[in-house]
Design goal:
heterodimer, A: 145 residues, 32% helix, B: 73 residues, alpha+beta, five-stranded mixed beta sheet, 1 helix, globular
Chain lengths: 145, 73
């Protein structure tokens, strides 16, 4: 399940909803990762652009990988502005046993950072500045150069 | 016509081009000063599927997207 929200995420509500959705699914492990905006370099927050058509197919391919391991992933992400100490990202893995979920959440979050079609901007002094130095070119980039 | 969208931080309006393959698009964009500096770091999608080769035929109504470096989370 992939959910996008305008602005920051209501973390307790989302985690509770996901917990309740799978409470009777016989998963032994539920491992969430919550990404929260930290105060650094004088920023007021972060802002995000999301390209939904490719994000949906990207997520679907990861859901299939999870299913092969008997697991399920859920993900929520913000669009637009998210201020300091608010959260912009939650990913969670459900699996019958803990080891699969622990390993898969690591693999999924790292892949998400480097290949999901989302662009991050710093909010600073009233400006929205592309976080170029923290961004990663998608594998296969440079085709038209 | 082929529509070309520039996603995320690339500040450029979409183009409508009469082209038949990605090689033609590469030549056009390489001479476009608004976007040429982005090309090295951009991935390319055809109708919302990433492509890895220029040898892809294009047909009327296709949509191409340029995806600059990403950072979610």
């Amino acid at each position: 399940m992939l959910s996008l929200y305008d602005g920051s995420l209501d973390v307790p509500t989302i985690l509770k909803e996901w917990y309740e959705e799978e409470a009777r699914s016989n998963y032994g492990a539920y491992i969430p990762f919550v990404g929260t905006v930290r105060s650094e370099d004088g920023i007021d927050g972060l802002s995000f652009d999301v390209y939904e058509p490719i994000l949906e197919s990207w997520f679907s391919s990861w859901q299939k990988k999870a299913e092969k391991k008997g697991a399920k992933i859920k993900m929520a992400h913000s669009k637009g502005d998210v201020l300091l100490h608010e959260s912009s990202y939650i990913a969670a893995v459900f699996s019958p046993k803990r080891r699969v979920a622990l390993e898969f959440i690591d693999e999924f979050v790292e892949a998400f950072k480097s290949s999901a079609p989302i662009w991050k901007y710093d909010l600073k002094d009233g400006k929205r500045i592309y976080a170029k130095d923290r961004s990663t070119a998608i594998a296969g980039s440079g085709l038209l150069a | 016509m082929i529509r070309v969208d520039f996603l995320g931080p690339i500040q450029k309006e979409a183009l409508e081009l009469d082209i038949t393959n990605l090689n033609e698009l590469a030549i056009i964009l390489q001479s476009d000063t608004e976007v040429s500096n982005w090309l090295e770091s951009c991935a390319v999608a055809l109708n919302d599927t990433l492509v890895t080769s220029l040898e892809v035929p294009l047909k009327d109504g296709d949509k191409i997207s340029l995806l600059p470096p990403v950072c979610g989370g």
